[in-house]
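[step 3/7] fold_predict: job queued, chain A
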Amino acid sequence: MADSLSCLKKRDLLHNDHIPAAELKRLAYALMENEQFADALDFFEKAGDQEGIRRIREWSLEHGDPFLLRQTGKILKEPIGAEEWRKVGEKALHEGRFTQALTAFRMAGDEEKIQEIMTRTGQHPYVQPN
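[step 4/7] structure written:
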């Protein structure tokens, strides 16, 4: 099912106010199983499933995904501490995902790590990554 969830189908499901929360949660968990975490987050948000959103937050911390960490923080209306950002940054850096690491360390305000990444990648410190 989740493999064939096109962007149009996703749009239709998320904009349909008649789909029960239980069905939205089921879709979200299926998307998580397929490692489509950003899409799953949209369905958890629509369903109002705080537990599902927190699972995605934990996944983002474990796997170094600053985008999902930021999104879950916004949805849950919870601030993200510098240590959480550093954890995400370290994981991303360890895996060679320098742009994601840089994003996380910027959010943490960790100038030392920012400079380390800049030196390793040859980026100018004032150029924002896309």
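[step 5/7] annotate
The longest helix spans residues 50-63.
The chain has eight helices and no strands.
exit 0
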